[in-house]
Inverse folding.
């Protein structure tokens, strides 16, 4: 009895400090990275998805309220903003690739971005999803940190948006090679660019692992999609929801 | 390393201030990102300290949105009830998005003579 009492006390003490949340988040991500590497970088074994599932199962198992977890994990969460700003560097590096190709690249971004929003929102609506879900689908092809910023601005759940964005990235990274082969796409830069629009960061890292030129264009597409969507999505959202 | 972080935080703060007082529809970090690109274009280059910080951020980007995404535990009933709608929407939409982007970029690119445009 006394023994058990002291374990409970230790747990109460630990769970009140940010240590537990920080530890399980980093440890889960480490496990995710390890699984990803041992699967030879199979897009299905996405380290972020693994980390999310592990942490979510863990806090449910020990009955830790999400708010308690987040109080500790907010120190990681805070860095999202800084990481978003640092996206300027890969975009700047990709700017020279825009030369002479600005028109096809911008048009492709607009078409792809609109296709993403219209198809996702309308299919979900058609199958009975409510506004809180369809709203969170607007920025799902945008890189997660920017997507969550957009979600906050348009008043939908950043969490749902992050989940949809990560799922979209994984699906895109898996399906893109089949889509490109079916369409007979041969140019690496075009394949990379399209995967960057549809599957943001997860697609970009897949593109880099296949071909460097595809990777450069994918990261350019991801960055441009993030900036342009941050301007356009609040406008589109209010256009269709008022 | 520290100098790189200072630069990032400086642009992030500028972005937050502009977002708060001038451009409320844009998230602060996105404004910071655009300002930093403009600054890099003006300076015509990236200093090594900044590159170091930016590259370490991008390497572990995924880790940073785990805390927010774990909030999925609060939405499990809602996600389960709408599972079919969500999965269909995401799968079909990602195929259409990638296919549309690919077709448009190929259609609008000048047809280079076959085999010569592979750098």
């Amino acid at each position: 009895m006394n023994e058990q009492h002291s374990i409970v006390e230790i747990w109460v003490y630990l769970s009140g400090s940010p240590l537990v949340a920080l530890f399980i988040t980093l440890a889960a991500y480490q496990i995710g990275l390890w699984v990803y590497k041992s699967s030879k970088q199979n897009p299905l074994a996405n380290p972020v998805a693994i980390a999310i599932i592990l942490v979510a199962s863990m806090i449910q198992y020990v009955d830790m309220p999400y708010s308690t977890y987040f109080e500790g994990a907010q120190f990681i969460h805070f860095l999202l903003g800084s990481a978003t700003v640092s996206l300027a560097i890969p975009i700047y590096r990709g700017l020279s690739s825009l030369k002479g190709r600005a028109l096809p690249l911008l048009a492709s971004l607009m078409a792809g971005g609109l296709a993403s929003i219209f198809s996702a929102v309308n299919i979900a609506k058609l199958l009975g999803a409510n506004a809180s879900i369809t709203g969170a689908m607007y920025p799902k092809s945008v890189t997660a940190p920017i997507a969550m910023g957009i979600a906050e601005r348009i008043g939908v759940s950043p969490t749902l948006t992050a989940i949809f964005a990560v799922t979209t990235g994984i699906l895109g990274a898996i399906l893109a090679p089949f889509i490109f082969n079916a369409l007979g796409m041969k140019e690496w830069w075009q394949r990379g660019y399209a995967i960057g629009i549809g599957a943001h960061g997860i697609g970009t890292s897949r593109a880099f692992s296949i071909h460097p030129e595809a990777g450069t264009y994918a990261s350019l597409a991801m960055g441009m999609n993030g900036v342009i969507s941050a301007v356009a999505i609040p406008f589109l959202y209010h256009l269709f929801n008022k | 390393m520290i100098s790189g972080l200072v630069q990032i935080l400086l642009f992030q703060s500028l972005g937050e201030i502009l977002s708060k007082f001038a451009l409320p529809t844009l998230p602060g970090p996105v404004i910071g990102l655009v300002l930093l690109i403009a600054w890099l274009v003006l300076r015509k280059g990236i200093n090594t300290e900044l590159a170091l910080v930016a590259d370490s951020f991008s390497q572990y980007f995924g880790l940073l949105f785990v805390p927010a995404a774990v909030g999925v535990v609060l939405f499990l009933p809602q996600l389960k009830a709408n599972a079919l709608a969500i999965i269909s929407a995401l799968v079909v939409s990602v195929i259409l998005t990638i296919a549309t982007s690919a077709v448009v970029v190929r259609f609008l690119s000048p047809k280079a003579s076959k085999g010569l445009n592979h750098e």
